[in-house]
Amino acid sequence: MGRNGTGVSIVSDSSYEIAFTYKGKRCRERVKAKPSPANTRKLEQFRAAILHAIDKGEFSYADSFPDSRHLAKFAEKPGDVLTVTKYFETWLDRKKAEVKASTYQGYHSITFGYVIPTFGDLALTDLKRATIRNELAKIDEGRPDEKKVTNKRLSNIQSCMRSALGDAAADEIIETNPLAGYTYARVERPVEGEPEDDIDPFSPEEQRAILAKLRQGENNLVQFFLWTGLRTSEATALNWSDIDFVGGTVRVRRAITRESKGIAEYPKTDAGRRDVKLLAPALAALNTQKALTFLAAEDGPVFVNPTTRERYAGSHQIYRVWQTALKRAGVRYRRPYQTRHTYASMMLSAGEHPMWVAKQMGHTDWTMIARVYGRWMPSADDSSGAKAVEKFADDAGIFPVIPPVNREKTG
Q1: What angle do CA 105, 108, 112 make, to 5 degrees?
Q2: C-alpha dihedral over 389, 395, 401, 403, to 10 degrees?
Q3: If you placed Cys at 281, which of 163, 227, 233, 365 could pair as Cys (CB 3.0 to 4.6 Å)?
């Protein structure tokens, strides 16, 4: 990149090299000048003028570097410019082999549903932070209030673009990632009649009502959800070999999503690969499920679709059953993921340690647990601190006095 990242480097006793990106290509041009502080400053200003002209679409390679061997390359027809469309299509093809199927499907949807329709004709080098921010700010134009794009959607769009542009910067196709360290978001108004956040757990009465309306096997699955906190994709990927009845744990190592087309994938993070303690209700669900699937096949799936007798192919199959059960039970609809929130809220309300809950749910640390589920964590009561006093104070309730060191001179 040159001196202190300026793009200007001394390469000999009589010349400098200037580095910049033009039409999606990394360029390095030599300029004859004796190295000196004054010449370095002049060439840094010269490079800054080049970048400004490129941003405005007014740069002429021939005028700036008339003797360059790269002139023929940049005299090609305008269609050879690396556009956002060309880059993102190539990037997406490469990502298909690098990320999970569900992640790829999300990238594909955002690339062809938003990025290319919005920025596709731009040269990739012209895709600046201000351009992206301005377009994101206009994303709701013409939409009625009930169809406004959420910050979650804006975050997903930026996550996809940030990943793609980060790869472009790493490959030196562009100077820097315009979305590095930046996120655009808006103040969202709460929608009348909806909770302030997505955390909306089921009460014990609602849980019992739902379980009573599910078929045999389906009720075991939902009870298992409620008392392990596993994601739908994780529970449907379980085999009986993942269950340790002696140790009382279930090993979570795989997930099945609709996008993976029934093929088990590994969790995204190391924390997602975990051993979850089997609490009594979850263990009871497994013991009941044994009669249905344990002997059906060698190391077969724990939970299967009662109709097809095959493993669930994804959460979409559970959604249909779930909607019917809640309707019949007279329970206000919430998506199946709320069983995971229900587990967390029950554990924290009962006083379980947030770090233990975080590990059970596959989170790296407990800060997210405290932030998201903080209102279910019990506050201090009148007995708080009593155990510490009992362990570290004396019978009188005071700390023992440490005698002073005798500093009298001897001999």
Answers
A1: 150
A2: -140
A3: 227
Q: How far apart are CA 350 and CA 378, in angstroms?
A: 8
172 dihedral zone (left: phi>0; alpha: psi -120 to 50; beta): left
- pTM over 0.85? The answer is no
Give the angle subtended at the CA of 181 by the CAs of 178 and 186, to the nearest 5°.
90
Alpha-helical runs (H) found in 74-126: 84-95, 101-110, 116-119
Summarize pLDDT for 346-366 with one digit per residue, the tens: 988 888 888 899 899 888 777
Residue type, 236: T
* C-alpha neighbours within 13 Å on the C-beta side of residue 346: 19
**Cα dihedral angle (262, 264, 265, 270), rounded to 10 degrees?**
140
Residue 177 in tokens: 């990632």
Helices 204-212 and 218-228 meet at what angle, rounded to 10?
A: 160
pLDDT in tens, 308-346: 888 887 777 888 889 999 999 999 999 998 999 999 989
The CA distances from residue 362 to 43, 114, 271, 348, in Å, are 53, 32, 5, 15
